[in-house]
Request: fold
Amino acid sequence: MTGTERRQQLLNVARALFAEKGFDGTSIEEIAHRANVSKPVVYEHFGGKEGIYAVVVDRETQLLLERMVSTLHGGHPRAMLEQAATALLSYVEDSHDGFRILVRDSPVASSTGTFSTVLNDIASQVEHILAQQFAARGYDEKLAALYAQALVGMVALTGQWWLDARKPKRDEVAAHLVNLAWNGLSHLEHKPKLRLG
Reply:
């Protein structure tokens, strides 16, 4: 194997182990054993477990961000909401190991990027779109950040649940998410207040 091929092999093995056992449950010994290499080979390529984990998390973060952000351009806001929900659920479906890694907390993830960091990046993109839509409809643009966090959080938490549930099918889950979000958004009050108490 070339150095590049070996590095990719180690990343694939580590990714599967981190998804299965988490950061703390995975060891360099196990990564090396599953890749049929010695521990020094893993250290040579990544410097240790933290190094390989950081690369895995970074790659998954970029993959998810690219999928989500690429859907958030132009078009009708409902179509963008549908595209964003479908993009996240497609990532969960296609890259369930990567999603499991991103949603797990670990000390290493906090320095290299966490699921909440990814969600904040996505929410920032959504915020710009919502701000434009709010301005066009006479709503307070300053509230776009709040609504962006709410929408992204709703889709992300549903994605976490759906990772294990897997029913209903992806497009049906996305349709229900959009139904809840859109029907609520289409009847926004300019200054909503809680009606309890």
Remarks:
- DSSP finds ten helices and no strands in the chain.
- The CA atoms of residues 13 and 31 lie 6 Å apart.
- The chain has a mean pLDDT of 85.
